[in-house]
Amino acid sequence: MKYSYILHAFVETPWAILPHKLAILEEIVARHVAGEKLDAEEVQARIHGARRPKDRQVKAEAAGARSVAVLPLFGTIFPRANLMTDVSGATSAERFGAQFAELADDPEIGAIVLDVDSPGGQVNGIEELSRQIFAARGQKPIVAVANHTMASAAYWIGSAADEVIITPSGEVGSIGVFAVHKDISAALEKDGVKVSLISEGKYKVEGNPYEPLAEEARGAIQVRVSEAYDAFIQSVARNRGVTPEDVRNGFGEGRVVGARQAVELGMADRVGTLEETVHRLFSGAAAGTTVPRRSAAASNPVNLPEAAPSSEPRLTEEEEREAQTLRERVNTILGKEKSNA
What we know:
By secondary structure, this protein is an alpha/beta fold. It has a single domain (about 5-180, about 220-305), classed as Alpha-Beta Complex (2-enoyl-CoA Hydratase, Chain A, domain 1), CATH 3.90.226.10. It is about 45% helix and about 15% strand. The protein has 13 helices and 14 strands. It has helices at about 5-10, 20-35, 40-45, 85-90, 95-105, 125-135, 155-160, 185-190, 215-240, 245-250, 260-265, 275-285, 315-340; strands spanning about 15, 55-60, 65-75, 75-80, 90, 110-120, 120, 140-150, 165, 170-175, 255-260, 270, 290, 305. The strands form four sheets. Strands 2, 3, 6, 8, 9, 10, 11 and 12 form an eight-stranded mixed β-sheet that branches. The chain has a two-stranded antiparallel ribbon with strand order 1-7. A two-stranded parallel sheet has the order 4-5. Helix 1 runs antiparallel to helix 2, helix 5 packs parallel to helix 6 (about 125-135) and helix 6 packs parallel to helix 9. The longest helix has 26 residues, at about 215-240. The protein is elongated, with a radius of gyration of 23 Å. The two termini are about 30 Å apart.
């Protein structure tokens, strides 16, 4: 793979992402730099990720009732919109934050569901977004659904919701940060190329790719990675209402975990689907049946509707018809997004 300054800049920043996903992104960027322009479908096929659906709402028809907004967090997360967000369905943290703020301030929105299917992304801008979501707790219910992957930076963000749901086949975690340095000095030497760097400033060319990585330079990179990791740990601990040690030693230790283990470890609150979550929030808002969210995971508790206990009386025929109409409306909205993916 031919060396490129663009590619070097792309991978050298700290990442909170599944490592194999970064390798795929690196290949895509390298091919783009080499002049091979991949279209959106080709990029999507190589990433093997979910196509980002449009934002949608389950609208209330009854007077005074409020809607449930579904905000997707799909694909790789970048600080701002760029080539990858345009062609691969990735997410811009800046744009996502603006969309979330609009929904949080909208009086017609009664609850926000974060529909998450992401391997994570670059570290820049993630803690700010996580804080933004955490600060919005108490305004209205905010629920994050791992549908089906909420890894690394995506978990950093999703854990800030009032409640974290994981699909039965879903996975969450990958709490960790890493950076990539490439030493191409041996390849250059083999090609008979000798690079000389003329600089001012003690550390100006530190960590350059034309010579082996010095221990001091490695230490400087490690400091950046460690700082980002510590911020990640502190943020998840705040979001989930646990100690940093609980996160560092008990939340997968960098691995992703499945649904059952995620709930056992306290990384998620329950197993469910996106459709079930939207049903619950929508029907609960309409009926006014809410219960306090467990206080251990939120300093600003918000009332979240729960499914009706099995001991409740059976619905009348009219109530059952209304419930079925509601289910059909939700499934129609969400089904359209699935068919377009």
